[in-house]
# Entry
Amino acid sequence: MPPFRDEHILIIAPGSQVTLAQLGLPESFTPARFRFPTRMFPAEKKGEYEPYKIRERRQEVPVSNGNGTDAPKEDVEMKDAESAQQDGAVKTENEPSEQPENAQKTEGQDANGEEKQGTTTEIFYEEDVTSDEGAVYPIQSGRIVDWPCFFALLTHVYNTMSPPFHTPIMLISEPAWSARDRETITQFVFEKFKTPAFCLMDSALAVCYGYGTSTATVVDVGKDKVNVTAVTDFLVNEHGRGIALEGCGGDYMTDRIVELLGPKGFTREMCEQLKRSNITELLPPGTPLPGAAATARQGANPAASASTGTKDGNAPNENIPRGPGEGTQTGGEGNGEADEDEGVLDVAAIVSGNTSEFLANREKEKAEKASTKKGATDQSGKPLRLPNSKKEKASFQFEEYVRIEPEKDTPNGPGRYMRQSREIEVGVERFLAATPKQNSGDRLTGGLLEDIATQIHHTILAVPDATKRSELWDSLIVVGNGSKIKGFTQSLLGTITQKYILSPSATMFTSEIPSNFSTPLPTGGTNTPAPSGQAGPMNHPAGHGVNPLLVAATHANNPMPGTPSMDPAMSHHRSTGHSQTPTSVKTLRPPEYFPEWKEQSNTNAPGAATTGGPGAPSGGHGMEEAVFLGAQVASKVVFVIDQGVSKGFMSRVEYNENGPSAIHEYTM
Amino acid sequence: MNPSIPPSTAEYGGDEVSAIVLDPGFSTTRAGFAGEDTPKSLIPTYYGRYSSDGQSKLVFGDDIFVTPRPGLSIHNPMGRDGIVEDWDMAEKVWEYAFTSRLTGPKPGNPLQNGLNDVPEGELSTEMEGVETEEKLLADSPLLMSEPGWNPTKSREKTIELAMEKWGTPAFYLARNGVLSAFAAGKASALVIDIGASNISVTPVHDGMILKRGVQHSPLGGDYISSQIRALFKSNAPQPITITPHYLISSKTAVDAGQPPQAKYKTFAPDRAPDASYRTLLEERTLSEFKECVVQVWPGPNKLSATGPNGVSNEELAKSSPGRPFEFPDGYNQVFGVDRYKVVESLFDAKAAIPDPESAFPAPTPAQTVPELIKNALNGVDVDIRPHLLANVVVTGASSLLYGFTDRLNQELMQMFPGPRVRISAPGNTAERKFGSWIGGSILASLGTFHQMWISKKEFDEHGPNIVEKRCK
# Structure
């Protein structure tokens, strides 16, 4: 078989919410070029699916010399031309093929009781890109629940990419997929796409490739599940793996905010946007909440502290737009003012053009505008800039799409949407997203982070090679879009420190150190031992609660003065078995040689106004989708460099010989 | 290859199916595809039961270790001797072992799973009345393991379950001793299996167990746990109580031997998990303790004996540095000679730490490992004894206790000074833990094994008793 080329490789990474895909490997690996929502809409024919919601629209068309289909065509094009002027990013030539072909003539049908003579009712089908009404989500909690829909999605992704025939496919698999699931997918990919080579790679392993590490504990925080995987020497430890831990993903945090703010009139959508906004933050355990609740500890009594935030009540519970938020006016068609146009989303423009690109540009423009505006108000309104974690109240921009009813003079225009946004102010609830839910259902949960920490502990303890466990604790990787919320990783580390880190006296040195060393004095250095449990604002929680003597003895090469007996060889003294873990817990640093991923981390870094605060994130941002970076690295290795020598992928020939069940032999 | 030329249409047409191997144990249940080197699915045999909204719900798998639930109680369908007691639940646990990682839930209707193109108008009407629900293992042969002392009734029940409930096309029931011997690459061996609820000694000759020689006793991993608990109770300066992680919200570092300072969690009485849940999680801490602290006195001789130079072994053990262990509540302590004592009774019944409250009665000398081996060898033909002693296979997770094989070797050399004694104990943890599963995986993927399967047709003809005739 001829070698595969970089530009032919197709990578697909399906997730519960978003499916990432890309054709070809760029010079320097970039974030995924395409992001498809992982959902399909049932098509008119049962068992078939469409990528967008198809709306049926009936309209009256005057019959003129029997050429009924031409009239709407003109209309649509006119409409397009108009919007093209506004947006300047519309390809009109795609448009006609899209709608009138679908139109059906249903003559003699009377819809509105208008004059029968001279008009017919046309049914138009238009794609409604913003609606998710009736959507089928084929992947739920990582599991494939609707196979036909999942395959339709794969086909849609494949067709959108339209790769050449000589395209190897790299598919990232969720841990929740069973062996039979993988076989089914293998069969589908080979028989439907006729791919010459196929690689099914575990998502946790892909993350390890992305980080360039062979051993790590990968915590993947998804929408409503969390996967915790221990990878040792590029091998996924299946036993004890935390697979699709239910009720632990980003939805938990939304649910919790809804629980807190729901009584104040917040809708779920508002809470979701609040969670995504840059004012929502997880504070390390033990950090006091700002404002009136200064004495209340996080988690001590969330209900009580929650109520302190918005005493004045007028702000969040009334849905009144605060201030002259942009786009609050329903901009008339011809107004042409830049500020108002911004709120209007022209569906036709999106449908005909490159959707994701278009939306991305739009988002960018908006973000820029918003940030300049915000910066201005911030400077004028609040001379004293506090970091977000110290502010008792903060506001975020709530945006929603409102469908504009077609106006009378252009009844056949495609559906138009207006983006409304307004500022909503919230109190300290925004720091409580990970606190225990009141209504936790069947789980006696100790809060999101604690559940994840428990799973990490269980997973690492289940690793058979006990000597690797310490390294696993020291190489934690937190990925997944659920972990995007500010302070997530730090809080998780804090929780682990609180519950699981061993005190230094329980580690190996107790027995060997002469008794006068059992309570060491601080060495006057940087590592003053703080009482453990206070993960505090410092970036290395591992440094907390750990005896400086121990740190010095284990990490420094030269023995400390005055303790001549403590050379590193001492640690090998206990040749028997191994010691308990964890003595420390750390996150791995993401690789620094992928500029595109770093750039993304900048745009993702929440609110410039809050950087430098104690709760400021230390890395990890932008790498939420490290799985895709890893998939690119792995594709390069597997398809291009290795060429199948070490059985990295399954070729078509092998598939034809051995069938789908042979996919398990390709150890990715 | 030109990227624009479509590939040839040759397609896979065969139906290669690999058998599923199920190795049910008391503590864990192992399942996977034959031919693989570790079981893909490893779940605890324990399951949880709780009620929510007035409905009784069940939890399987690792989730029972991770998620406390209101009123959760823990049960095990197996009896302490490794024989199934609760068949309904055993079926559910085993099904979970298949479905969670291997087969997924019951296969869907092939017409709708997206893999088959259904031409318009065809098949749609006449297929509707047909039974479409497939059985769980309708397309995979199943190989199961059983302990050497499994009664006939239980064996027949097993094949009925596999054939009638799961619809497997072919079935075989193999002794786990034989499978462990196969995993070690031996057709004849003396298999010493140290499990959670049992230790057993099984003589295997030419791939058949010598039934008269099979010995077993309850001094397994759970017994060692009970000994550790007894040690904790009598610990000085204060008794140690194990508080599992789920009851602790945060801990503070304390010096060795100091009382713990932890913040505890409380559950409302009507929502608190059952005591059996706490026991299960305490067991997790104990297994960590076994891994990190417990050590088998390597010999020569018993821990209570005196060495050649007049120093007692116990003194010798005391002089070796202790091992620290921290409990979930932060309490930590160094364990000195005690860490040898908790396992000594596996070899020396008199050394057992007395605990009147323990569920395990004090061990009798006949239950110790050396005696079991002696009795096993006495039950087999004199001629093959040397052969068996030259092929001693050690398996089972509890045999991973530090120093266990050294001690076993010493004991065997003492008991049988004449013949050559050779222990084969894989150093790889997985191979030791999953010995009998791996043997099953090898066996079921052998071409020559195909004639051994009991087919569905044979089962229908002869009834469940065929398992007695065919699986010896």
In short: Residues 444-589 of chain A form one domain. The CA atoms of residues 364 and 370 of chain A lie 10 Å apart. The radius of gyration of chain A is 29 Å.
